[in-house]
């Protein structure tokens, strides 16, 4: 089986206490990520400062020798807090991330009203590493009744 990408940070920062306050202070915050066969899917929460805004995710698989960017898409209806918007993204990692030694780093950029804000995990970038899945269970299938004794009289 292909390896999984394992986050080296809590994969659900949006569920932590004070998340909305962090978005207010920093203007942009990663909400969650999930490794999927198609790549890395995630969501970003931004402070709604203006109608027009752009959210992108910059990522690398080779320690920034090269990088790529993908736009994040606005998700309507947004969160019901009235002050933030949610954007989602998919990093199409393909075969490059299929190696068990793969390492992915990314940061989120939010452009709004002539300003630019970054969420780079407090200067550490968001990092994930490849982790080989455990081997599938081997051996004969177990019959749930195989250990039961039946006694006829």
TrEMBL record:
It comes from the Eukaryota. GO terms for biological process: regulation of glycogen biosynthetic process. Residues 1-20, 125-146 are annotated as: Disordered. Signal peptide: none annotated. One of its GO terms (cellular component) is protein phosphatase type 1 complex. Residues 1-14 have a biased composition (Pro residues). This is PPR3D phosphatase. It comes from Probosciger aterrimus (Palm cockatoo).
